[in-house]
Amino acid sequence: MKTNRILIAGFGGQGVLFAGKFLAYKGLCEGRQLSWLPSYGPEMRGGTANCSVILSDEPIGSPIITTPDTLIAMNLPSLDKYEAATVPGGQIYIDSTLIGRKVRRDDVTAFCIPATQMASDAGLTTLANMIIVGKLIRESGVCAWEGIEDALKKVVSARHADLLGANLKALEMGYNYEG
Amino acid sequence: MVVFDKPHALTDVPLHYCPGCTHGIIHRLVAEAIDELGIEGRTVGIASVGCSVMTYNYFNCDMIQAAHGRAPAVATGCKRARPENIVFTYQGDGDLAAIGTAETVHAAARGENITVIFVNNAIYGMTGGQMAPTSLPGQVTQTSPYGRDVKTVGYPVKVCEMLRELDGATYLERVAVNSVKNVKAAKKAIKKAFENQVKGLGFSLIEVISTCPTNWGMTPEKALKWAEDNMIPYYPLGVYKDITAEKEAERA
Amino acid sequence: MAEKVLMKGNEAIAEAAIRCGCRHYFGYPITPQTEIAAYMAKRMPKIGGTFLQAESEVAAINMVIGAASAGVRVMTSSSSPGISLKSEGLSYMAGCDLPALVVNVQRGGPGLGGIQPSQSDYFQATRGGGHGDYRMIVLAPASVQEMASLTAKAFDLADKYRMTAMILADGTMGQMMEPVELDEGGYTPVDKPWAASGTGMQREHNIINSLSLVPEELEKLNFARYEKYKAVEENETMYEEYMMDDAEICVVAFGIAARVSKNAVIAAREAGIKAGMIRPITLWPFPAAPIKAAAARCKAFISVELNMGQMIEDVRLASECRRPVCLCNRVGGMIPSPEQVLGKIKEINGGVQ
């Protein structure tokens, strides 16, 4: 029996909610129990945004994550806010292009991915989020790599179907990133 | 042979209005229009709050009693639910032009395909004669005992003039029932307002200058004269907007 | 079985309403329920329904009154401050015995308050909100699945009893996504011979009305209405019991508070404390019977709420004050953590003998 409690945080516009939705749909495809809870309101318009994704083999009680076992921090305020809350033994993924400092905790595993730089270099400007998710899938085992395309199809709306390939590429870049 | 008879659309329930009140005339005109158009079976009336609160007892069609000022919103829901029905509101000046201003303006702006009968007698009748949004400057009422002072309470709301600026309104006419000639004109206008709805032409409002002998403190006869001498000059009768023909052409 | 899809709670309400025959929605934007309006705006025109953004919440509820009077399934949705504005209409709907669905996705108050989740409209929902003696059926979903299933239930109950039914959710329930299985829906329209839908010259006119100036008659109407409410209490009370068989500490919580409390109950059991939970699904009628029964064997009750202690009064009444009833709460948009609830369970377990 396994429960993953993933908190994704960053600025509005960094695709925090989208990344969470992708993981939620991946969980759905794998037949797991899940919940996806966004922050909402005015802070979403350019302020900080976060979302809680729980994937579990059992029915989920509270959908609110106060102590994540997996944290994705897309900017410094998010790392400052949630680093201490992460459970000992947990994992923290940061976008090292935007976050100048290291993860200070030594009882968690930290992954520094220069995701914004990588995305920019590859012409995938808005997809730093998915690069980090790719890395997370490889390192955390929250979900299988197989079937990512099926989950992507569910979360990328028909209107943006042309972005499917770019999202897939970003996930692959993250998955293959060594560091 | 012309036989004077009660319109079918009126029930046999005796009206509760004060002696000399013109609500009775206006009820009859509405009922005649419903009869002549043969729409009683699919008409739903919305009663408001004020003297006409018990209108639901007087019309033979289905009736809904609305909260104070909300009749146009209730009519909107009713009409949207069953567009084949003919829906009218019957409202006084306090109801339509004070507490229900927003509902009135927005039903007109949306061009709701409803008919509004707006009875303006420049006073709150049911509660005993307080100042209305349409009380005239200087008019003495229970809550303007020294006369309506426009410096402190502002000016009357001229509903037809206000609504005519709205693109959504189809037909706006102000009529009166203080003389035989005016009653005839009022009948014509009210019937047209219903006809418009039958044809699906949008929002029609007929403002009827009425009297309140009881709260104006006059005999019925004097009240009719007072309306002629004081109200009609301030609220000129006539068509304020009529794009019925354009609407008809649009639909054709 | 239908396929499981991911939906926000707000969207699940909207889709469920459409599937059970609701073709009329009147609303006004307010966070955190706006997704319901957005969903309806998108779908209704495609299925021959009405979506109308009213000029105010007051107008919206009166449009609901008009459509309900005409005999169709109709709903509106709002959040706390908007429900206050609708309360006049809710009173009239009770007085006219009109069936409709009103959704309140609560946010913190009073006043404009905040936009984060809250349960502080419990009194307003269960005690009336508007003026006069009346009740609404109040349903409190605790998952996105229930946002959908209780919406269908609410419409059925509203039609069955000619009452307003309210879904009392909160910002979390409205905004979160969970897998949901939607019924194919479909419903058999209920015969509404009382509706103002036109006489067709075939019957006496129907009058939808709440005015009754003769005291003897108004008294009769009120007594009759409360007979109906009694039938609702007897037949429609819904609740869930969790680990209550041998429970010594009984947590009572609904909606998001119940989700949090469930984790706490599990943790308490792991710590060797016999905790259990009663989750009211209908807040009115309130599930008094299971709480009274629990009072005979539990040491204490803990009412977990996102308000300053509102449901706790019903827990006290239902338990007839035979056991201590404590409050565990957060307010203003804050949500109690499972740890906070567990702490309270431990404290009470240690303190009550």
Which SSEs are present, and which pair or pack?
The complex is a heterotrimer of chains A (179), B (252) and C (353).
Chain A lengths: L2 E9 L4 H14 L3 E6 L9 E9 L13 E4 L2 H7 L8 E5 L13 E5 L1 H7 L6 H13 L7 H8 L8 H13 L3
Parallel strand pairs in A: 1-4, 4-5, 5-6
Antiparallel strand pairs in A: 1-3, 2-3
Helix pairs in contact in A: 1-5, 3-4, 4-6
Chain B lengths: L22 H15 L5 E5 L14 E4 L5 H11 L4 E7 H7 L1 H10 L4 E6 L29 H4 L5 H5 L5 E8 L3 H19 L4 E7 L3 H4 L3 H15 L3 E5 L1 H8 L1
Parallel strand pairs in B: 1-2, 1-3, 3-4, 4-6, 5-6
Antiparallel strand pairs in B: 5-7
Helix pairs in contact in B: 1-7, 3-4
Chain C lengths: L3 E5 H11 L4 E4 L6 H10 L6 E4 L3 H13 L4 E5 L1 H17 L3 E7 L15 H6 L9 E3 L4 H18 L2 E7 H5 L1 E5 L25 E2 L6 H22 L2 E4 L6 E4 L2 H16 L4 E6 L1 E3 L3 H10 L2 E6 L5 H8 L6 E5 L8 H14 L2
Parallel strand pairs in C: 2-3, 2-4, 4-5, 5-7, 6-7, 11-12, 11-14, 14-15
Antiparallel strand pairs in C: 1-8, 6-13, 10-12
* Radius of gyration of chain A, CA atoms, in whole angstroms: 15 Å
What is the correct CATH architecture of chain B? 3-Layer(aba) Sandwich
The largest contact between protein chains, plus residue counts on each side, is: B-C, 38 and 41 residues
Q: Look up the CATH topology of chain B.
A: Rossmann fold
* SS element count, helices of chain B: 10
Number of DSSP-assigned strands of chain A:
6
Strand content of chain A: 15-25%
Straight-line distance between termini of chain B: 38 Å
User: What's the arrangement of strands in the largest beta sheet of chain B?
Assistant: 2-1-3-4-6-5-7
SS-based class of chain B:
alpha/beta
Report the sheet with the most strands of chain B, covering strand number, pairing sense and barrel closure: 7 strands, mixed
In N-to-C order, the SSE pattern of chain A is EHEEEHEEHHHH
Poorly predicted tracts of residues of chain A:
none
